[in-house]
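FAQ
Q: What does a multi-component entry look like?
A: The components come first, one per line:
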Amino acid sequence: MMKLSESLASYIRSVSYEQLPDDVVEFTKLCILDYFSSAIAGSDTPPVAKVEEMVRELGGHEQATLITGGKSSVTNAALLNGASSHIVEQDDIHKGSIIHAATVVIPAALAIAERDDLSGKDLITAVVAGYEVCFRIGEAVTPSHYYYWHNTATCGTFGAAAAVAKLLDLSEEQIVHALGSAGTQAAGLWEFIEDGAMSKQLHPGKAAMNGVIAGLLSQKDFTAASRILEGNRGFFEAMSDAYDVSKVTEGLGETYKIMENSFKVHASCRHTHHAMDIVAELSRERGLDAEDIESIEVGTYQVAINITDNDNPVTVYQGKFSLQYCTAHAFVMQEGSLNTFNEENLWNEEIRGLMSKVRIYVDSAKDGAYPNQWGALAKVILKNGEHIELDTDYPKGDPEQPVTKDELVDKFMQLSRKVDQSERERIAQKILSLEEVEDLEMLFPKNRVDIK
Amino acid sequence: MMKLSESLASYIRSVSYEQLPDDVVEFTKLCILDYFSSAIAGSDTPPVAKVEEMVRELGGHEQATLITGGKSSVTNAALLNGASSHIVEQDDIHKGSIIHAATVVIPAALAIAERDDLSGKDLITAVVAGYEVCFRIGEAVTPSHYYYWHNTATCGTFGAAAAVAKLLDLSEEQIVHALGSAGTQAAGLWEFIEDGAMSKQLHPGKAAMNGVIAGLLSQKDFTAASRILEGNRGFFEAMSDAYDVSKVTEGLGETYKIMENSFKVHASCRHTHHAMDIVAELSRERGLDAEDIESIEVGTYQVAINITDNDNPVTVYQGKFSLQYCTAHAFVMQEGSLNTFNEENLWNEEIRGLMSKVRIYVDSAKDGAYPNQWGALAKVILKNGEHIELDTDYPKGDPEQPVTKDELVDKFMQLSRKVDQSERERIAQKILSLEEVEDLEMLFPKNRVDIK
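Then the predicted structure of the entire assembly, as tokens:
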């Protein structure tokens, strides 16, 4: 019986750009575009400014571009560019593994690819491998792992290490060590959510950085556990109540799990999107106001309730993680894009009033369908006595309910507003023709302040 | 009810050099001396060379001295100086928490203290605080946490953050965040032990580095979970089957837990020392040879068996973690110092032959007394039919069976052999009068190759 890390190492070695189907290449470029949407949008926020300040204090060789401008070491770049892309709650999500892969895999891959003068094709290939590995590991431990652990950070570390291993052209044995070093660095507890704390950004940044460290050390034959996943004291046993090892290898190399990735259209926690989609649509179609509503009951899966049950958010950030607030917000605003989540709307009387009429509960059917479906029911009772039943199995942006390339370009143009229009257009064009790009520094915005 | 992190933050703020009893100051200097013994001894080993190579590749401002020579950023120094001090299996151990605190707390504290031109007194105070915090957290989760997790790394991260927080003179609120960022970065799985892999060194290095990151970010008001220990999705719930929160705060500020620290005289896993002490003493006193022995049965606590049951070690490193090998080694060599653990003795026929006669088992009385006592029984049956019963509750170097200052200086002189005699003497003298030292760079060996 092959060890899981050996199977993954063999897969990582075997992935090649030439064998990627066209639709996988096209989709991966959209993942990378969507990464830059979030990374640029987050680049001038307080948590990122604090990480940037630390990175500047520490210094490092100018190996890789920082999303805030200038260059630093690959570990510093991975840390900062990871932190920056997980703050506006617009980054991608894979529902089977509950992982936001872009914010961990892509900054790690970008840093190493830029340092080593690798090409857009190399980057695409590494991202495909990184997503595959972390999605599979995340699926193996979902849902139990997710109660305590931030899958994006913990499982993401393996994805970052896999992408880095691919770019460094490590041997199979070295990749086994890289995965071992990734797993033994994996960290990130959900406890921060109680305080709405900045750990949310530290997690993906550190995961990307730790994946880079795992790869760099393995290149020097630094050894690690060969059965980091399935071993008696490994990742699965230590960090999940139940797990399914078959998820790691079943069909490995035959399909491309990156194609299961979902994109976010609302700027809040993904576990609020189902309800937002259906109440926003109702509000738009019927032209309803908050004052028309007697009550809204939202039924969804247990995990959504665990993460988003908050009937009194007092910061914009907490609002993005409150299913009650997001439901009311989407009904009143009829959408949930980044610029609608602000202090003014947090305290908007119409939204707060409606929020007090939103009740949330676990629906057993939706809970049973999770994590394959991230669905919700909403029963809306109008003051005129009308009962309206709404239902969705897939939030918009899921593969089953896809967004278009144009919609993702629009999202990029909106989220990167702080960059000049012509520069935004240049970046989008570069990423959409990434297979022709030789200098990956060209993907970053120009003319930012250098970090020394 | 005060949050645990708030209690710890209040304690950390309150510790002051002026109020430390003399014996605590003297003992803390021995802890720091003992750190340098191990750090220098490990500085030219392969795992450390690989970390050093990575640190050199990454670069960083010259803020803190590397044990391998030259300077780099505080995070790089903490990483390398942590990795270097946990390789020759001679570093200190606190049995109540199963933590080797020196290898995590001291490199983190040294790096920040040197960067900020702080004094020997500041370093002593920070080390006292760092040990206190990680010992208490480790005691709270012992023994269940230890099955999967390397306490030194996981709990040690809190200790490193506490020491750094003290040196940075953070506010109570900032210290709460520092502890939160420490806990959410805490990592390090025992799975590597199956392969005897280099993760052993990565763990304390990363823990020290992560503690530094936690402190630096908190100084910039980067926020984290306020109930990282006791919260529903915090460190205790996620990473232990059972825990005792009272261990964190009971008597906090009234005693000095650093005084419970143990020093190692044998160069193997601490869980082998009990048996080594008693069989080496028997062998010395009775002048016995391996060929006199019919069988040796060693009874000890379950955790020792979990970690050290290996009846066929094939590397020197595995030998240090094999209770069967270590028992035979100590009987034949009549000691277990660093220079006796080598390839020659690993395959020594007399030792291997005796090893095959060693049986180990869980003794219920020793298991019940653990972790307060790390004891063992040995029943030695001679070929002449004589039965000898040996028993110890405390390995040598425990506070109940202490080593002297002179013995620790001798250990330092032996472990730092690669440094010139006069230089070794200079360093020992500096550390033993640390309260008078103003320039902490003086604690490191001179004339090593600079890392750029």
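Q: Is there any commentary attached?
A: Sometimes. For this entry: The longest strand of chain A covers residues 293-300.
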